[in-house]
């Protein structure tokens, strides 16, 4: 697997974000992507793309710092053809590493768990726990966080 970031991720990230938005719009009532533009999001510097050994983009996510020491995963997506092979777990590992590089000790996310149950189960399997609502995402039904095991936070 190869990981793309920065300018190298722009094209594949935009392509994957369009697929993500279309799939979530089909599965989550009222989802409109918050007016997001995949081409703009792909170029904001937060996108990470994971590719197969042949270079085919298979999944993506964004990691950003939302408060001092708190990171957030957004727009996590795995292409249907790559699901069930552990790529979702690999993306979470990549997100944790990116959050640690940002100096974060906590990683959060929101999800429409009732409409995206496979994503919700993945997050729970990887150590995320339910927390109170921390944002105003109208499509979210669950808010989760994970404490990262970074230097100074190994208790």
TrEMBL record:
Domain N-acetyltransferase: 8-150
Pfam family, one: Acetyltransf_1
UniProt GO molecular function: acyltransferase activity, transferring groups other than amino-acyl groups
Key words, A-Z: Acyltransferase, Transferase
Family annotation (PANTHER family): AMINOALKYLPHOSPHONATE N-ACETYLTRANSFERASE-RELATED, AMINOALKYLPHOSPHONATE N-ACETYLTRANSFERASE-RELATED-RELATED
Protein known as: N-acetyltransferase domain-containing protein
């Amino acid at each position: 697997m190869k990981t793309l970031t920065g300018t190298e991720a722009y094209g594949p990230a935009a392509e994957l974000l369009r697929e993500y938005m279309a799939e979530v719009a089909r599965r989550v009532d009222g989802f409109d992507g918050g007016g997001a533009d995949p081409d703009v999001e792909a170029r904001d510097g937060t996108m990470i793309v994971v590719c197969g050994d042949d270079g085919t983009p298979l999944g993506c996510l964004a990691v950003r710092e939302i408060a001092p020491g708190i990171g957030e995963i957004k727009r996590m997506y795995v292409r249907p053809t790559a699901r069930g092979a552990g790529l979702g777990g690999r993306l979470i590992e990549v997100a944790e590493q990116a959050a640690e590089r940002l100096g974060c000790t906590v990683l959060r996310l929101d999800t429409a768990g009732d409409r995206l149950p496979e994503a919700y189960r993945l997050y729970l399997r990887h150590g995320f726990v339910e927390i109170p609502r921390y944002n105003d995402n109208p499509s979210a039904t669950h808010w989760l966080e994970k404490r990262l095991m970074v230097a100074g936070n190994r208790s």
